[in-house]
């Protein structure tokens, strides 16, 4: 596209455009990028021009078009902020600088880093949303031309697009851009699945003909009979949209019915409801699939009626009904705020101030201290629609769709949420995991002494509720960690012939730069620090000595007769540091069980077979195998990350088996060779902290215990 063609495009919706400004920006950008080429071999300046064209088709103002032409000049050329400001003005210079800062954010795959970058993105966005609009258009053109990149770079950009830019475009009301970004990313991340869906569409069209054309004709006939003037459009849904439905419903393509969408554009709001009546009279409505966003608009100004009906041959079709004004906002999203028509800003009564949404989101999340909580809350805000519920006093509480009474309680006040023990919905007692619906009245039942439960994290949906629950659990965990830390350090000090007195622990805390003995114990209990570091801080010579002496495996257990052999029970897999008991077997030595092993019930009537045992003091070899039951997110690289984490804790994986596989998660059983209970605790804590580990538990299998009749009592 030449400068004249771009100006002509802008003038088509804004006759009063400053064509000299756009022409100057075009010339300046071309000069600055002279000699630069894209990976595809094309002149680099073709990219900024393409970005400007995308935004011109959204009818954006002159400042945004010029920013698109210059968006890479400060970052990639000799141009400076002051030079751009002098030539094009402060507003454009700040917009270009804002895009440069967003571009320089390295959106890492490490979630905490990603969350921090997400926070920065929203901080920058809150100042002028046009920065984000240019960045989205920039990403769209890059995704359209992504095939010229290296495969690993394609995958990285596609994942970033799917996780951040596509949902951001959707939340800002630019649904067309979201769909295209998702489909382009899907083409890179899972080309086989996308091609499969396209092939099925082609086969379906050959078998059944043009379904869209037939249903459109049927709808047009019904609208004409009711004398309703409206435009009607139909299309098959995008491949990624269909793939997502297949994953959510765990269904194959052949069983998926609602793969077609239709849009009716009317003259008036009253006509929208008339169209709805006509469609529901002609076709059967699908229960639970009706949404009225006209009476309850989305926060980005989106208004439309959504309904799903059973069409020809039982095929489900989704129908969206809206006025032309509503359609303009639905198509353009927040960009409608800057749209021009006939040289004047469009006064669309449904367009919202885009900065208000982003400012509210930023303000709500800016106070959070936990990057994980921030990222989770942002993603929930972007992916979820909303429901409106009422308190008993009639106050409206706005929540994401899928929210529960727990979310409702924390939305009122953290104190109410923390003390919640039950809920009534429309006067009826309901479980806390009940999903709330629009218009319901919710009453929260509280009790003194109640504290948030860990299971609530699975029930809660909102970032606010989850953050408050995690905060309470962390405080509760701290008390537990302090107790556990004291037990660990007590044993460690005894192993080197010393006592873990308060004075010794305070001295160690000072030496390690920690804020007191309690902080030291909490870090020990949470595996953020090892007991060897504490001993080293005040008894360095003893720490080295204690570390150097390793207990021989054949004498790891004390309390056995001379020459008597032992083996660890496979049911409970006890490790040094845990209380143990032995059961004798004739000709097989002693089987060592944890003191709380359920298998010991088999031997309650045979006290003569029991031996009082304990582990030898000192450092044990890492040969004690423990089985860990892990539930992991089914994502690329997760298993490798888990193996790395275990290796970082100086533990060895001796075996691994898959217990269950699902589209979004899988369960595995990992056998890890460990020194003692402290080593086990460190490994489990490291894994539990990994965001892609949904659950972790020590595996116990009573069925593997030797039955009471397996052998006669030793010495009987």
From TrEMBL:
One of its GO terms (molecular function) is guanosine-3',5'-bis(diphosphate) 3'-diphosphatase activity. It comes from the Bacteria. It catalyses: GTP + ATP = guanosine 3'-diphosphate 5'-triphosphate + AMP. CDD domains: ACT_RelA-SpoT, HDc, NT_Rel-Spo_like, TGS_RSH. GO terms for cellular component: plasma membrane. Residues 44-143 form the HD domain. GO terms for biological process: guanosine tetraphosphate metabolic process; nucleobase-containing small molecule interconversion; response to starvation. Residues 381-446 form the TGS domain. Residues 627-701 form the ACT domain. InterPro entries: ACT-like_dom_sf, ACT_dom, Beta-grasp_dom_sf, HD/PDEase_dom, HD_domain, NT_sf, RelA/Spo_fam, RelA/SpoT_AH_RIS. Keywords: Kinase, Transferase. Its EC number is 2.7.6.5. Belongs to the relA/spoT family. In eubacteria ppGpp (guanosine 3'-diphosphate 5'-diphosphate) is a mediator of the stringent response that coordinates a variety of cellular activities in response to changes in nutritional abundance. This is GTP pyrophosphokinase rsh. It comes from Limimaricola pyoseonensis. The lineage of its organism: Bacteria, Pseudomonadati, Pseudomonadota, Alphaproteobacteria, Rhodobacterales.
């Amino acid at each position: 596209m030449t400068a004249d063609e771009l100006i002509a495009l802008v003038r088509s919706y804004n006759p009063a455009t400053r064509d000299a400004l756009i022409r100057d920006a075009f010339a300046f950008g071309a000069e600055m990028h002279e000699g630069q080429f894209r990976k595809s071999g094309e002149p680099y300046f073709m990219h900024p021009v393409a970005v400007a064209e995308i935004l011109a088709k959204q009818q954006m103002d002159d400042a945004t078009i010029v920013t698109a032409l210059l968006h890479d000049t400060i970052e990639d050329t000799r141009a400076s902020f002051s030079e751009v400001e002098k030539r094009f003005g402060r507003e454009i210079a700040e917009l270009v600088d804002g895009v440069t800062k967003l571009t320089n954010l390295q959106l890492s795959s490490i979630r905490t880093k990603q969350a921090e970058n997400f926070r920065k993105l929203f901080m920058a966005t809150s100042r002028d949303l046009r920065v984000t609009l240019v960045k989205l258009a920039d990403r769209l053109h890059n995704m359209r031309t992504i095939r010229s990149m290296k495969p690993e770079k394609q995958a990285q950009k596609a994942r970033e697009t799917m996780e951040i830019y596509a949902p951001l475009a959707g939340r800002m009301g630019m649904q067309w851009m979201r769909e295209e970004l998702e489909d382009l990313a899907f083409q890179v991340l899972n080309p086989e699945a996308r091609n499969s869906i396209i092939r099925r569409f082609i086969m379906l069209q050959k078998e059944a003909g043009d379904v869209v054309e037939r249903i459109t004709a049927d709808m047009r006939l019904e609208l004409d009979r009711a004398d309703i003037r409206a435009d009607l459009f139909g299309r098959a849904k995008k491949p990624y949209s269909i793939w997502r439905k297949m994953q959510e419903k765990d269904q194959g393509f052949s069983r998926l019915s609602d793969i077609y969408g239709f849009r009716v554009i009317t003259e008036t709001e009253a006509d929208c409801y008339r169209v709805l009546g006509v469609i529901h009279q002609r076709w059967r409505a699908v229960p639970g699939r009706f949404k009225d966003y006209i009476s309850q608009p989305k926060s980005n100004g989106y208004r439309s009626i959504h309904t799903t009906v059973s069409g020809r041959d039982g095929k489900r079709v989704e129908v969206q009904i809206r006025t032309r004004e509503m359609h303009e906002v639905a198509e353009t999203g927040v960009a409608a705020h800057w749209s021009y028509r006939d040289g004047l800003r469009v006064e669309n009564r449904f367009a919202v101030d885009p900065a208000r949404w982003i400012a509210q989101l930023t303000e709500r999340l800016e106070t959070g201290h936990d990057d994980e909580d921030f990222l989770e809350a942002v993603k929930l805000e972007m992916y979820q629609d909303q429901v409106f519920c009422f308190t008993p006093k009639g106050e409206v509480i706005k929540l994401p769709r899928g929210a529960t009474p727990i979310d409702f309680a924390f939305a009122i006040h953290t104190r109410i949420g923390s003390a919640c023990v039950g809920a009534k919905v429309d006067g009826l007692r309901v479980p806390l995991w009940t999903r709330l619906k629009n218009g319901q009245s919710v009453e929260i039942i509280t009790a003194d002494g109640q504290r948030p439960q860990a299971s609530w994290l699975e029930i809660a949906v909102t970032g606010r509720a989850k953050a408050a629950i995690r905060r309470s659990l962390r405080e509760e965990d701290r008390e537990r960690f302090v107790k556990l830390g004291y037990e660990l350090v007590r044993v460690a000090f005894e192993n080197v012939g010393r006592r873990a007195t308060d004075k010794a622990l305070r001295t160690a805390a000072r030496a390690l730069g920690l804020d007191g003995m309690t902080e030291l114990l909490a870090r020990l209990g949470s595996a953020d620090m090892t007991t060897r570091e504490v001993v080293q801080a005040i008894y360095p010579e003893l720490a080295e000595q204690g570390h150097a002496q390793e207990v021989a495996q054949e004498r790891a257990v004390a309390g056995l007769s001379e020459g008597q052999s032992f083996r660890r029970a496979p049911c409970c897999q006890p490790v040094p540091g845990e209380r143990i008991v032995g059961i004798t077997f004739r000709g097989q030595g002693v089987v060592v069980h944890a003191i709380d092993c359920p298998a010991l019930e088999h031997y309650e009537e045979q006290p003569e077979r029991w031996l009082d045992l304990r582990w030898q003091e000192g450092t044990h070899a890492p040969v004690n195998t423990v089985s860990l039951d892990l539930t992991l997110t089914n994502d690329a690289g997760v298993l490798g990350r888990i193996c790395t984490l275990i290796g970082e804790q100086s533990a060895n994986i001796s075996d691994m088996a898959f217990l269950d596989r699902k589209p979004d998660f899988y369960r595995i059983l990992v056998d890890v060779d460990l020194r003692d209970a402290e080593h086990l605790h460190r490994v489990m804590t490291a894994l539990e902290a990994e965001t892609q580990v949904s659950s972790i538990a020590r595996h116990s299998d009573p069925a593997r215990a030797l039955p009471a009749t397996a052998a006669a009592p030793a010495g009987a």
